[in-house]
Amino acid sequence: MGDLMKNKFLVCIDSDGCAIDSMTIKHKEAFGPAFIKVWDIDDSKKNTILDQWNNINLYSLMRGINRFQGFLAILTLHPELVDNEQLNVFAEWIETTKALSDESLREKYKQTGLEIMGKALEWSDLVNSKIEVLPLAQPFDGVMDTIELIKSKADIAVVSSANFSAIKDEWQKCGLFKLVDYFYSQADGTKSECINKLIGMGYERDKMIMVGDALGDYKAAENNQIWFFPILAAKESLSWIDLKHKYLHLFLVQQFNKEIQEDLLLNMKKNLS
């Protein structure tokens, strides 16, 4: 697949909450409410659990974790909802599965028949159906212009932990799909694994950068020894403007360095803590 390379530089971009303004509404209108329904949460606990879901997945350093990791995080806070042995099996699946996807979970449910696996699958299916009827998400201000500029100078890969059908729909309808060279989604493995696949195509690590809104995006970049640029939660448009007018140039002339990286990362952590 190395012959797909058009440029020596590659910019990897996360989708939900980074390029596309879809993350907040998905968590508040789909992920959280679906959890309440599937576990038949009592009204007295409903608001507490919804607040915990949103705080973990949107406003903490855990922002951007895979949906099943979020599912586990809430169940860990509420052990009364599930048998501890089943919770441990679910946690082990998260740690050992090759892909945190519906397909992998469905296979695990067939193997074990455990209630927690069935509930997680039911929840994930309900989340998908809720997302399908949400209003069409749009790119953050500044995204279109910046990605068009990137495309003129580098190859582009979307590297996301979201469902591919949702990513494809959002990127097609807003006109960004045609600008992307590669799409990697939930079923393709972790973000770290997906970046590693791109390195395997022949891109050099110092000519690759991951653009993301969560600490997990940074860790995926760090694991592969490539650069990282953060899109700050609630300051997304300003971040994209900064990328367009300053940091993209530094990356392309190879003056993006560890000191710049650390300053940007510190700002990201402060913004999420």
Summary keywords:
single chain; 273 residues; alpha/beta; Rossmann fold; 2 domains; five-stranded parallel β-sheet; 5 strands; 57% helix
Portion of residues in beta strands equals 5-15%
Question: Would you count the extended β strands for me?
Answer: 5
Per CATH, the architecture of the largest domain is 3-Layer(aba) Sandwich
Shape: globular
* The CATH top-level class label of the largest domain: Alpha Beta
Low-confidence stretches: none
The gist of it:
GO terms for molecular function: phosphoglycolate phosphatase activity. The chain has helices at residues 23-38, 43-58, 67-77, 84-96, 102-112, 115-132, 143-151, 164-173, 191-200, 215-223, 236-252, 258-272, and strands spanning 10-13, 155-159, 182-184, 208-212, 227-230.
Write a structural description.
With 273 residues, the protein is α/β, with parallel strands linked by helices. It has 2 domains: 2-21 and 138-272, HAD superfamily/HAD-like (Rossmann fold, 3-Layer(aba) Sandwich), CATH 3.40.50; 23-132, no CATH class. Helix content is 57%, strand content 8%. The chain is built from 12 helices and 5 strands. It has helices at residues 23-38, 43-58, 67-77, 84-96, 102-112, 115-132, 143-151, 164-173, 191-200, 215-223, 236-252, 258-272; strands at 10-13, 155-159, 182-184, 208-212, 227-230. The longest helix is centred in the middle third of the chain and has 18 residues, at 115-132. The termini are far apart.
